[in-house]
Amino acid sequence: MEKAVIYREIEEFKEVHLVLKNASSKQFYEYRFEMDDFPNIKIKNITNLRETGLIFENNKISGIPYVNSVHDLDIEFYHTHDEDSTEIKKVHLFVNADPKDLWKNIPSDTNDIYYKPDETSYEGKFLDKKITVVSKRGRSHAHEGKCRDDDFAVNELPGGWGIVSVADGAGSAIMAREGSRLAVVSVNSFFNSEEILNRIEQNIEIVYNSSDSSKEIQSEAGENVLKLLYKGILHVYDILEQTAAEHSFSIKDFHTTLIFALTKKFDFGYVILTFGVGDCPINLISPDFSEVMLLNQMDVGEFGGGTRFITMKEIFSDDMVSRFGITCVNDFSYLVLMTDGIYDPKFMTENKLEDIDSWKAFFNDLAGNNDDRAKVDFINDTHIDQQLLTWTDFWSRGNHDDRTLAIIY
């Protein structure tokens, strides 16, 4: 082949405007060189690549870059008809900063009033199933060194009952973190009573397990259950109101949402008693993952941008009964409670909470199909709470609230 042709093809490759796609720090990167227009040009090596954390092999750059910067790279190449001569082509690789690194992570002040850890987790038994719950401070609070406002509580109760409650303290309320803690602790404490649970159970038996009871009697029994649940919520309000008065605060300073699931396995199935105020969902997924139910009323839509809190007296109105739920199923695969720190980035809209495909995507995400490759293994579930804590550190632009997630499985 004439030297002039070799020279021309080398110079054409040198002059072509080659733009490498941008990389992102701490995220897997891959770029393959398409050489169809230069069949006689072979890339031998790329110098200055090691400092990026990437490697070059099989005509592609790949790996996980760890330093955000503009990297000057030298592509060493040769012409197939002149393999002894190595030429250099200069290109640039832009590695964008990991968005997470732009957020400060300032520990909250352990001497602050009503201090709570920046993250906490729980794993254990729940009825004849298992449960894991995590609560992690959001990036917005971490950036300012503020405490976590979310909270949760799990309790094994007398008579084979169990309860899990989750609360999201309002960011605008100065005592929100204590409000959420008091809400979950006080509602669980109220139902930690053999007398109350026995009364609930007697009425549940009439509703679901008494063939000789009339519809009127069954309806009355159901109303009796709701009345007892109502007393539990009223108890929470009274505790918050009393605490506010004792410390010269307004109850508004303790604004918090609250959801809970009070459950027991009977001979005729699992009974799940629920309550919700605010924008935190409770979802039940069928054993074969074919159906999902939203078990509580969500304060979105007409209340968008202004959620309701357990500290608002107006929620104790005529429509209060719609906030409670009585559900009975033979079995289930998952019972999930979460705050909006999980709900907003993963579901975005209320209608997706009742869309089984959205839930399949959610559990696929939990299984490791995510940018961080963080996996929560419900089979090999040793330290599953730590797996879930790691997963909750996911990045979602514009979603930096506290994240609390409870899963019974």
UniProtKB/TrEMBL annotation:
<protein>
    <submittedName>
        <fullName>Protein phosphatase 2C domain-containing protein</fullName>
    </submittedName>
</protein>
<feature type="domain" description="PPM-type phosphatase">
    <location>
        <begin position="137"/>
        <end position="373"/>
    </location>
</feature>
<dbReference type="Pfam" id="PF13672">
    <property type="entry name" value="PP2C_2"/>
</dbReference>
<dbReference type="InterPro" id="IPR001932">
    <property type="entry name" value="PPM-type_phosphatase-like_dom"/>
</dbReference>
<dbReference type="InterPro" id="IPR036457">
    <property type="entry name" value="PPM-type-like_dom_sf"/>
</dbReference>
